[in-house]
Design a protein that fits this description.
Layout lengths: L6 H37 L19 E5 L5 E5 L2 E2 L2 E2 H7 L8 H5 L4 H24 L6
Antiparallel strand pairs: 1-2, 3-4
Helix pairs in contact: 1-4
């Protein structure tokens, strides 16, 4: 920890430590959790009959983890096919390329289920583990 002489110094140091924890500990866990839900909720819920699945939802280049301000981590699939938001289509079940698939397939909310897992304790556990790994005594 840096030399802390004021409440503002403490706040800055804690924010830096939390952000570092999010990058090093939470982001990799959240990426894997998203991939698990892509496999289970998106791919496992439907087998294509009129198109061939590319598997690109699982590619690291299509999964974004970004710190949005201090303390907020965004994890999402950015899979696009040109201008088409493929991840959004799958998540919502709307605007598939082939007629009748909206009704047949429906929503496969892999982002939503990932967020639920994180909210149900996975985020808190990873945060505590990361803070402990950086030398903080966290209960």
């Amino acid at each position: 920890m840096p030399d802390i002489k004021s409440f503002d110094d403490l706040k800055k140091a804690l924010n830096k430590t939390v952000n570092n924890t999010q990058k090093k500990f939470i982001a990799p866990m959240a990426r894997q959790k998203l991939k698990d839900h892509i496999i289970e909720d998106a791919y496992g819920a439907y087998t294509p009959e009129v198109y061939e699945r590319t598997g690109e939802l699982l590619e690291d280049k299509n999964i974004e983890t970004v710190l949005v301000g201090d303390g907020t981590l965004s994890v999402r699939s950015t899979r696009h096919d040109g201008e088409r938001d493929v991840a959004g289509v799958i998540e919502t079940g709307k605007n598939y390329s082939y007629a009748g698939l909206d009704e047949k397939i429906g929503a496969r909310p892999f982002h939503e289920r990932t967020a639920q897992d994180l909210a149900d304790g996975d985020f808190e556990k990873a945060l505590k583990d990361g803070l402990k790994a950086q030398g903080l005594d966290v209960k």
